[in-house]
Amino acid sequence: LYKWTNYLTGWQPRWFVLDNGILSYYDSQDDVCKGSKGSIKMAVCEIKVHSADNTRMELIIPGEQHFYMKAVNAAERQRWLVALGSSKACLTDTRTKKEKEISETSESLKTKMSELRLYCDLLMQQVHTIQEFVHHDENHSSPSVE
Q1: Is the whole model's pTM more than 0.85, yes or no?
Q2: Buried-most residue among 1, 50, 115, 127 (CB within 10 A)?
């Protein structure tokens, strides 16, 4: 893809790598070992297509940054849009799954706490019944107390 750098140098070819929901870019494929020039977490960005140019797209991190990119042709842009959109959707699904697990765990804990209170109440009733029985037997001083 090409990335808009600035008005002085304009569109520059960059090597983009999408891995585990993070889009990183480099000066070239050979520079991957040197570390990325920048990266974008797909979960937090919006993907926007250009209204007139079918090779251009934008990745927007709301309130922070805009990345302007351009593919060599419309088909290549479409492949990138599908990959980026799928990556973003999978991250959203994963987060939703985790939220569901947390919610289920929370509900399960509430149920267990409710059961625990019930068992505690039952146990306390039994303790009171035994105490009353012992107290009643002490008053009549029969051998059954032993």
Answers
A1: no
A2: 1
